[in-house]
Structure formats: structure tokens, C-alpha cells
Amino acid sequence: MLTTYVKKFSISDIEGLISIKAHTIRAWEARYNLVPPKRTPTNIRFYDEDDLKLLLNIVTLNEKGYKISRIAKMSKEQIADLVMQFQSDWNNDTVQVLRLSDATLHYDETAFAEILSGCIEELGLTKTMDLVLFPFMKKVGMLWQTGAIDPSQEHFASNLIRDRIIVEIDKLEKPVRENPKRFLLFLPEAEMHETGLLFARYLLKSCGMDTLYLGQEIPYTDVKKVIVTYKPDYAFIVLTSLNLGKDVNKIIGKVMEHLDVPLLVAGSLISEFDILVHNQLTPLKNVCDITDFLEEL
């Protein structure tokens, strides 16, 4: 006989998932009896997936200007119906991040794909990555590290995003450019998150640049060999894995030991840690930095 598994969330888990402070959630409970937690036989407070869904919907309405006092008077069905009306507000990045979070928690591939498609059709891939997907992936990565979500949920979301970026790359018509620069794109050893690098490839192709894409966890010795054969103008890496944070400058230094071309480094770690200055190194802290760099070439 199969045992039904009930996912339990602490208030700190909820805080991370919906970006609302724990004391705010407690205040909603105390003042309006809004989403009271359940308790284990040993009196430990927890929330289940239905509670999380309701809280996601409440935050979505609150983001749209509904006061908590008004929301507290609604039934769960009324709240859900109202949220449905706002789901196509693609310009509201907070709403879309919350929707992606909900789809991820429930492994809802259809919903996730619909949200991605809606954002990209309305905003374009570049704005979608900058305003929706990068904030979403950062949140998911942190929640995975703390155990609030399962590794399988992080992989579910990452692979769907990866697949969609590849589709968008294939759809691009590379503009004709006189003497385009050549870029070698790869992830160094111990870095496996490919989404940012694929997006860099999209941006480079959209600008008419030539790229050689090697993918993830490329041995340093192989990079040196490729440099000799391909003769790129630039190498491009992306660093996002949280467990690499303390070693970010060490990793960049190791990569540069095997290069004789300028290195571009992007990714969330570049904006969060102090990067050592080097005349052959260009840190790109956000999407705007990348697009500005490409426009100047």
C-alpha cells in the first residue's frame, strides 16, 4: 500500500518561496485568521501545498493593489478566480515569478510552458530573462540550497527554461555583420548551470557575432587546445552555482591561466562578490552590461 506523501513547509520556507516576511504572514494570521498553519502531533507549525497555493494567490492579489483586509473576506474560490484574471499581465514580473514558482512546485509543465510563452511573446526573450527568469532562477537556487524545494523541482524548471532558450536561438536569423567577432562560450569545471551561457549565445547571435559553444564543465586543458584551433577574439563564461561563491576569483584565475584572449564573465556570482581587477577581464554584472558591451563592438 502506497503512503501519501505530504510536503510540509516551515514559515521560513514560505518566506523564501513567496518573498513575504515571516512576521507579515504571522500578522495576517493574527489579525485576519488568514491561512493559519497546521500543527504536527508535537505541536510544530507547518504549511502544506494547499496553504502555499493560497498564500501565492494572496500575494498576487496584494501585488495588484488589493488590501489584505479585503482579501481576508473572500473565499478561497473567489481569490483563485480573481488571480486567474491577472495571469495574463505579462508586464507584472512579480506575478509571473510567483506563477512560475507555483508551476515548479507542482511539476506542471503545461502551466510553466504557457507562462514562458506568454512572457516571451509580450516582452521578448531578453526582457523575460532579465525581469522574470533570472530573479526566478536565483530564488529557486537558494530554496534548493536550503532544502525548501527538492532538487528535482530545480532541475524541472531549469531544463524547461534551457529548452525554450534553445528554441529561441534556433528561431533567430543572424544579421549579416562585417568582420564579426568570434566568441568561445563554455562553463569551467564544477559549473553546471547552462541557462545563462545559452542566453549569452542568444544575445551574441542576435548581434551577428560568431560563436563556438562548448557547454558545461569543460576541462581547462581542452579550452587551451580549442583556443589554438578556433582563435576566438573573446572567451565567455558564466558563474552562477552558489557553492562556487567563495572560490569565484580562484576559478576565474584558473580559467585565465589557460587563455591568451580577453575573458568575459557573467552570472549572478559576478554581481554578488568582489571580482579582482585584471586588464584581460571584463565582469558583466547584468543583462544591461552584456548588451552595452556588445553594442560597443
From TrEMBL:
Molecular-function annotations in GO: cobalamin binding; DNA binding; DNA-binding transcription factor activity; metal ion binding
Signal sequence segment: none
InterPro entries given in the database record: Cbl-bd_cap (IPR003759), Cobalamin-bd_sf (IPR036724), DNA-bd_dom_put_sf (IPR009061), MerR-type_HTH_dom (IPR000551), MerR_fam (IPR047057), Meth_synthase_dom (IPR036594)
A Pfam family matched in the record: B12-binding_2
Swiss-Prot/TrEMBL keywords: DNA-binding, Repressor, Transcription, Transcription regulation
Domain HTH merR-type, first and last residues per copy: 8-77
Alphabetized Gene3D superfamilies for the sequence: 1.10.1660.10, Cobalamin-binding domain, Methionine synthase domain
Alphabetized PANTHER family for the sequence: MERR-FAMILY TRANSCRIPTIONAL REGULATOR, REDOX-CYCLING DRUG-SENSING TRANSCRIPTIONAL ACTIVATOR SOXR
Protein name: B12 binding domain-containing protein
Organismal lineage: Bacteria, Pseudomonadati, Bacteroidota, Sphingobacteriia, Sphingobacteriales
